[in-house]
Design the sequence.
C-alpha cells in the first residue's frame, strides 16, 4: 500500500468533510435558498451512492471475500457485512442526541430577529445538530477513505457525493447558531468542526485497521461501507431532498446521479 494512495484517499476525505463549510458560507452570503438546486443535488448524491454501493462496492467486497474464504462462505459473509454496516449507522442514529433532527431542512430565510428565549433554543439546536452530524460523519469518513484507498477512480465520485450531502448539513448548523448569536465566526467554526469528524474517522479507521488489512478484512469493511452508504441515502439524503419541497426534482437528481456513476464506471473498463 503506497503512501501516495493513502494521502490521496485522506485528501478526498478532508474535501468531503469540509464541505460543511460551503454550507455555512451559503447561509451567510446568499439572500435566498435555492431549494430546487439543493433538492436535485441531494437526489444526485443519493443516486451516486446507491448505484456505486450496489453495483461496484458490494461486488468488489464479494470478490475479495470469496477469494479469501471460498465462494459460499465469502458470499454469506458479504451479505452479513452489508447489514452490519446498516446496523452500525442505525445504532448511531438511535444514540446520537435527538433534541433536533440533524438532517432537518434549513434555509437562509430563517435568519431574522426572534426573542431571547427562541435564540437560546436555536443555539442549543445548532450545537446538538453539530454534534449529531459529527457523529454521523465518522463512519462516512471511513467509507470515503476506504473506497478511495481501494480504487482512487471510485473514491472521487463518492467523495463528491458525500460533499454534496454535507453542504445542507453545514446550513443546518450555521443557520441556528448565527440566528442565536449574530456571529458568523461562531456559526462557521461549529459547522467547520462538525465536518472535521470525517477525516478524523478516516484516521482512526486507518490506524486501527492498517495492520490487519487483508482480502477478508478489506472485503468485510467494503461490504459494510456499501451498507452504510445505502442507509445514508435512503434515511437521510432522499428525505432531506423532499423536505426542500421538490419531490420529483430529487428523484430526477437521483436518476441523473445513477446515470453519471454508471457512465463513469464504464469509462474505466
Sequence:
Amino acid at each position: 500500500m503506497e503512501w501516495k494512495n493513502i494521502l490521496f484517499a485522506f485528501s478526498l476525505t478532508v474535501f468531503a468533510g469540509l464541505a460543511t463549510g460551503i454550507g455555512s458560507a451559503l447561509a451567510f452570503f446568499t439572500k435566498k435558498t435555492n431549494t430546487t438546486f439543493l433538492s436535485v443535488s441531494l437526489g444526485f448524491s443519493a443516486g451516486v451512492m446507491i448505484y456505486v454501493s450496489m453495483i461496484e462496492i458490494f461486488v468488489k467486497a464479494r470478490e475479495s471475500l470469496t477469494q479469501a474464504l471460498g465462494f459460499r462462505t465469502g458470499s454469506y459473509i458479504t451479505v452479513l457485512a452489508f447489514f452490519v454496516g446498516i446496523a452500525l449507522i442505525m445504532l448511531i442514529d438511535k444514540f446520537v442526541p435527538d433534541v433536533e433532527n440533524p438532517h432537518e431542512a434549513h434555509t437562509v430565510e430563517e435568519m431574522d430577529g426572534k426573542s431571547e428565549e427562541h435564540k437560546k433554543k436555536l443555539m442549543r439546536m445548532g450545537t446538538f445538530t453539530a454534534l449529531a452530524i459529527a457523529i454521523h460523519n465518522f463512519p462516512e469518513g471511513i467509507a470515503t477513505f476506504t473506497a478511495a484507498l481501494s480504487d482512487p477512480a471510485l473514491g472521487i465520485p463518492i467523495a463528491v457525493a458525500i460533499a454534496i450531502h454535507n453542504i445542507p448539513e453545514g446550513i443546518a448548523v450555521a443557520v441556528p447558531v448565527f440566528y442565536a448569536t449574530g456571529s458568523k465566526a461562531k456559526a462557521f467554526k461549529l459547522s467547520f468542526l462538525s465536518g472535521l469528524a470525517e477525516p478524523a474517522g478516516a484516521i482512526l479507521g486507518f490506524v486501527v485497521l492498517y495492520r490487519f488489512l487483508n482480502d477478508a478484512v478489506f472485503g468485510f469493511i467494503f461490504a459494510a461501507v456499501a451498507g452504510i452508504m445505502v442507509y445514508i441515502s435512503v434515511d437521510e439524503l432522499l428525505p432531506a431532498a423532499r423536505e426542500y419541497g421538490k419531490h420529483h426534482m430529487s428523484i430526477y437528481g437521483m436518476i441523473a446521479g445513477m446515470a453519471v456513476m454508471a457512465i463513469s464506471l464504464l469509462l474505466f473498463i
User: Anything to note?
Assistant: The two ends are 23 Å apart (CA to CA). The chain is about 85% helix and 0% strand. The chain has a mean pLDDT of 81. Residues 35-69 form the longest helix (35 residues).
